[in-house]
């Protein structure tokens, strides 16, 4: 007997509760290429297991909608590729009720992340234009979750990245959203529970991160330097909560790097139970940690800290500033971070501003 196909086209009515939009029901990894060749406006991904070392590759789908239904899982392999790639223009990605993208990251977790140990894949790589990604439910990524790379005019909303199991099972470098060389990006109404940056902007322009909750990780970061483009301009982080992270919010530039950070605003950000430092602004960042005297090759201009408030735990530090004297300019600062300790060694605050470490 011939095996039954798991690719159903043109609005298969065997799935109850669907709307009447024509679409392809993708129920096996092997049917992906056939679905991509079709012209149905909607591809519905249903309960797929992606073979080890393979990518669920959504390219060549301009103008179409990708819906996730049921549970998506992945075979285990130590490799540095991407488990899902979504690339194109005018694409709408939707997570439907009851779905889950489950990375089962505990199979890779070894407390090393991308620094050592097992090779770990990125979960989702996006390179999109004029598109939306909404409603995704993601659990236990092997390491990094979203790569937002060379994207333009894209909204990411109502996304839940749940890596809380990694707190006790060895998760590391489980970044929520990593942004690079992207323009006019908005990430909003989302939650991240992880063991690294909730948001890390390495480079980009006109980026908004709004109404998001970050829990358990390393805070919200603008981290510039060490890439082919080292420029972050017009960044707004607004109406967010950072809960039980080691860092609250930070701007960090690479030691001996070249580039610019201009127009970063943290507005109405609530910090709760931060363990190490509430607000960090440094110019001597290295992957292994801050080191040496800061350099001014990536000046931090027009930084606005507005109503960043909350508490740092007893052994933590409220504010850390260490930038090259004369390199920053145009800062505005209004914060109220309680608890912890004041840092008497803040350096490089621009002349227009009284040192906030002494407030």
Automatic annotation (TrEMBL):
Entry keywords, A to Z: Cell wall biogenesis/degradation, Disulfide bond, Glycosidase, Hydrolase, Repeat, Signal
Pfam families: Glyco_hydro_28
Highest taxon listed in the record's lineage: Eukaryota
A molecular function (GO) term: polygalacturonase activity
Gene Ontology cellular component annotations, sorted alphabetically: extracellular region
Region (Disordered), start-end ranges: 337-359
Family in the record: Belongs to the glycosyl hydrolase 28 family.
Protein name per its UniProtKB record: endo-polygalacturonase
